Amino acid sequence: METQANVLRRLKIVSYNCNSISNPESLAVLGELCKDSDIIFLQETFLPKQELERLSSIPPQFHGMGVSPTYLSAGIIEGRPYGGLAVLWRKTLPGELKQAKEWLMLSNLVVDWSDAV
After folding, report:
1. Dist CA 58 CA 88 (whole Å)
2. Dist CA 26 CA 50 (whole Å)
3. N or C: which end of the chain has fewer CB within 10 A?
4. What was the pLDDT predicted at 14?
5. Does this model's pTM top 0.85?
6. Rounded CA separation 108/43 (Å)
7. Whole-angstrom Cα distance, residue 87 to residue 34?
C-alpha cells in the first residue's frame, strides 16, 4: 500500500490557461492533463457562479472548486465576462479543499509524515 509520503514525493501539479472550460479544445487538453496530473490549476475558466459545480464532474476522478468574476442574473451577465480560477484535485489524494469566501480558494493537505523514510 502506498503511503502518503510516497504519494507526495511523486505529486504532479500543472497549471493551464484554458481560455474557457467550455471550449472543446480546452476540454481535450484537460482530459490529457488529467491522465498524469494530481492537481491542476486552471485560469480563465469563463464560468459564471451558477456553473462552478461543473468543475467536480469534469473529470469525475477529480474534486473541483473555482471562483468566478461573473454572475448570470435574468439572462444578463454581471461582472467581467472573462477570468475565473479553478483547482482540480485528484480524489485519491489526502487532504481537502475548502472555500473560505466566494472569491477565495484555500487548500489544506493533511499529511502524516511518520511513515516517511
Report:
1. 9
2. 20
3. N
4. 94
5. no
6. 20
7. 12
pLDDT at 117 (0 to 100): 46
3-state secondary structure the chain: CCCHHHHHHCCCEEEEECCCCCCHHHHHHHHHHHHHCCEEEEECCCCCHHHHHHHHCCCCCEEEEEECCEEEECCEEEECCCCCEEEEEECCCCCEEEEEECCEEEEECCCCHHHCC
Write out the chain's pLDDT in tens, 117 residues.
Answer: 566 666 566 789 999 999 988 889 999 999 999 999 999 999 999 888 888 888 888 888 998 888 887 766 666 666 666 788 898 988 888 766 666 555 555 555 555 555 544
Report angle CA 30, 34, 37 to the nearest 5 degrees: 120
Query: What are the cell numbers at 25?
Result: 479544445
